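step 3/5: co-fold with manganese (II) ion
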Amino acid sequence: MAGFALKYSSTAAIRAPGTSPILFKGDLCSSIIKSKNYGFDAVEIHIRRPDEIEIDKINEYCFKNNITISTIGTGMSYVIDRLSLTDLNWQKRKMAIERLKGYIDLAEKLNSGVIIGSMRGKIDFDNYNKHLSVYRENILELTDYAEYKDVPIYLETINRYEVNFHNTIEEMADFLSSINSSRLKILIDTFHMNIEEADMEESIKKYGNYVGHVHFADSNRRYPGKGHISFRGIINALIEIGYEGYIAFEYLPYPDPDTAAKKGLDYLLAIEKSIAAKENLLL
Ligand code: LER
Ligand code: MN
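step 4/5: write tokens
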């Protein structure tokens, strides 16, 4: 474990544009080894299709390196294939559901969770009720499936310029309480929160029960410490709610993936140490 309390995940993809907020690109097994060597507790993998993954090989590398796959990022299915849960075309929606069930099947085998972020899609406000009604139906179908497979789903609050509904943690928590599934939690992302939340720390404390996964990036989507978000405040809030999940480093790999990974981790571990020292905790 990297820190005294919090667990960190790297992010990895087989291929993704250089401008995407993912640390490591290329062969996933190499990224697993690299993540372990840097001191990460887990890896979040971003993949386009569930069948791209050699499950046995990934599980073997994780086992050998004593590391886990925390989460599966699904955004490429929207960015590349335009599959979304709010599409008014039923055939496209059906393809989105089938894709997500494939990710859930994969998550069951990798013992990880599934993120639904960009796949929520963009809606047209003239048809708001129709979009929201098909969205609810689809989430209900997916949470039933996730409960059966015992896989957590993390619905991500994303800023309004990327997904134009349920942008705040409060809106997402309201939606979650109307669905009422034990396998459905919120993914909070500090980059998006910095745009949408009036007070990031207060939102975490208020809706702590709903939080199942976390993405860290600074205000400019660079590594923590490179922008103006107070990670000391965020970490304090996560400790206060007793957060036990993973925090994935979903930020730009600038100036290069290794520097970005190391600087982010060093910065956060130093904050954890100073919080622990203040509270007279032994690390
Ligand atoms: C996905 O986790 C996310 O945060 C979006 O902004 C897509 O990158
Ligand atoms: Mn995110």
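step 5/5: annotate
The chain has one domain: 7-282.
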